Amino acid sequence: MQLGSVKVLIVPNYHSMSEWVAREIATRVREIPHLRLGLATGSTPEGVYQHLIQIYYRTGVSFRHCVTFNLDEYVGLAPDHPQSYRSYMTNRLFDKLDLTMSQTYLPLGNSYDLMDECDRYEQLIQSYGGIDLQILGIGLNGHIGFNEPGTSWDSDTHVVRLTSSTRMANLRFFHTLSDVPTHAITMGIGTILRSKQIYLLAAGEKKAEVVRRLLLEEPCIKLPASALHHHPDATLIVDQAAISKVKW
Ligand code: F6R
Question: Quick one: pLDDT at residue 4?
């Protein structure tokens, strides 16, 4: 199904969404062993990673030639900080597959020179020839990566100040609000749009309003995910609950 230029795949629930995306990734890795995979953190892709690990153990599909690039990382957290996105990825995926640390990239949030780190990360992605398949989640305000409403659609990797709603949404991973970092490094919307293919995942009733806006409102800088309407191969994979506000 297609509304605007983002393709839409509707699946029954979170489990089927996760299974479908994990199978797709495994199929792509079999076809292109050197796949350059863009990854996200947050709650949404956790099921995909669990299914991918199961497929890896069941079928032996190998990731040893892949490289991965994560969307973002908190500023001020060392890679081995328990709440860093590097730790999230190591614990939930990287350590469970045949991937070594040298194949997996995230921005360095504790870098001495953050501007320099953003340039380095952007160039690193380009030096590999860009991302083949980027997995995205969507924030309640339509953010992708940490690109909050108003971010330019041609932005490269950059430092962002996190909005209070994003910090509140991420509070569940920290003890107190003051522990939640105030800034992050994120791939820009331009960086994301240069990926060859994009899967945007949305599940659950909480995402129904932002999915409605994405599919039924005019693409606009106030809704960062709507930039995907300008991508030639972007698919929204959505469960019944998250599509429930879209009436045809
Ligand atoms: C994560 C990321 C964010 C999340 C978004 C949705 O790397 O870049 O854009 O994808 O905040 O988060 P969840 O999946 O927790 O609802």
Answer: 64
